[in-house]
Amino acid sequence: MNSYLDTDELGFYGDFGGAYIPELLRPNIEELEQAFSYYRNDAQFIDEYKSLLKDYVGRPTPLYFSAKLSATFGAKIYLKREDLCHTGAHKVNNTIGQILLAKRMGKSTIIAETGAGQHGVATATACALSGMECKVFMGEKDIERQAPNVLRMNYLGAEVIPAVSGSKTLKDATNEAIRYWINHPETFYLIGSVVGPHPYPKMVAEFQSIISEEIRQQLLEKEGRRNPDIVIACVGGGSNAAGAFYHFYDVPEVQLIAVEAAGEGVMTGKSAATSALGTPGVIHGSMTLLMQDQDGQITEPHSISAGLDYPGIGPLHAHTISSGRVQAIAVTDNEALEAAHALALTEGIIPALETAHALGALNQLTLNPDDVVVINLSGRGDKDLETIAKFINKTS
Ligand SMILES: *Cc1c(COP(=O)(O)O)cnc(C)c1O
Question: How many folded domains does the chain comprise?
Fold first, then answer.
């Protein structure tokens, strides 16, 4: 049977994916692909990964029935509590998986790039755990804007290397990381979302698939069935969404909703709604949908949440959205801020501003009382309190 998760021999999901990389990196990618294909079926590898997810990350994360959201929106609404993972978000599910793989491959140095610093922190965490050297590339401007995460990475023993070219943000950090990788092929490049050249999107989706594996188990206990009616997740690059959707892609009766950041509004020029505004192009080593002008220059994205402020989207999402399997919804900065505050006030849970977009999508749906809806609560919002405070001061 054809699955939405199948890639062809070149790593394409339909029209999207592949590995658009300098020839010099071909051996690195081949080495990674071989190791991944082997260890994903290796019982010892899987045991070690599952045991760290349980005792270090704190899995399974709860599937919490929100009586308040259910009453407000007239459906049975559950929250998958990835915010309760060690380090406060889903990202660690992936960094732990890749670190174990790097160790098996005999690597001792990990490189990564980070924008807001969340992936940098999750990588530094996994490196500290496994005794790996860690170098994180970060735009000079982001280093200034995200000082607490820089401090966290340093405290965990990672070296943060400033990218000083271009706009001094994520795109430039990515270029620096790739350049370093070419010159130091003995290092392991740890990518933080379902983006990058094949096999990264496939590998990251597989490490995050634990989220929907648990949802199925937990729904069976709570609702007597494995499949919800609707799953909702926010999409930056798309790793938490890929994990939450994973085991439902090929179950057509489950509706899948990917929520993008509309910023100040999809058509305002200050948005990160990639699937609405994007056209096919190559970013970060894969063919996907991205925001670009007519000359193929990448358009600067905007979102109040740093984790959704990305001009591309993983190729799996480009494929499943353009083929109609996944529905994309855009939620603005203001709608996200309101949804975050509502959850804080009614449930005592402060969600990440990324996650708040998924919550904000509820306003746009028509739900039935019997609908079982799962929202992936990708992370906790402590990191966003300063942004929230600024917004409150601006509007009051
Ligand atoms: C990084 C991040 C995201 C966005 O990344 P995806 O790869 O799209 O999941 C979403 N939520 C939180 C809490 C994050 O830290």
Answer: 2
On the question of pLDDT at 128 being above 90, the answer is yes
pTM summary value:
0.97
* Identity of the residue numbered 197: P
**Which pLDDT tens digit goes with each residue over 40-81?**
999 999 999 999 999 999 999 999 999 999 999 999 999 999
Among 153, 169, 204, the domain-final residue is: 204
Best probe residue, ligand 1, of 121, 210, 303, 354 (max atoms within 8 Å of C-beta):
354
Are 271 and 261 a contacting pair, CB within 8 Å? Answer: yes
Q: Please count the other Cβ atoms lying within 10 Å of the Cβ belonging to residue 10.
A: 9
Supply the pLDDT for residue 264: 96
Residue with the nearest Cα to atom 5 of ligand 1?
Answer: 236
Peptide bond preceding 185 in cis form (omega within 30 of 0):
no
> CB-based burial of residue 47 (10 Å sphere; 0-12 exposed, 13-18 middle, 19+ buried)?
exposed
pLDDT of 300 above 90? no
